[in-house]
Amino acid sequence: MTQISTKDVQHLAQLSSLQMDENETESLRTELESIVGYIEQLSELDTTGVEPTYQVTDLQNVWRDDAVDNYGISNQKLLALAPATEAQQIKVPKVL
Amino acid sequence: MTVIADYIGRTARENVVNALLKARENEEFNAILSYSEERALERADKVDSGEITGRLAGVPFIAKDNFLTLGVTTSAASNFLKDFKAPLQATAIEKLEAEGAICIGKANLDAFAHGGSTENSAFGPTKNAFNQEHVAGGSSGGSAVVVALGIVPFALGSDTGGSIRQPASFNNVVGIKPTYGTVSRYGVVAMASSTDTIGVLASSIEDAELVMDIMSGQDTKDMTTLPDFFAPAQLEGPKKIGVIKEFMDEGVDSEVKAATEQYIEALKQKGHVVEEVSMSLLKYALAIYYIVVPAEISSNLGRYDGVRYGARAEAGTLGELYGLSRDQGFMQENKRRIMIGSYVLSSGFFDAYYLQAQKARTLLVDEFNTLFKTYDALIGPVAPTPAFKLGENTSDPVKMYLADIMTVPASLAGLPAISVPAGKSQNGLPIGVQLIGARKSDALLMALAKEVE
Question: Is ipTM over 0.90?
Answer without folding.
Answer: yes
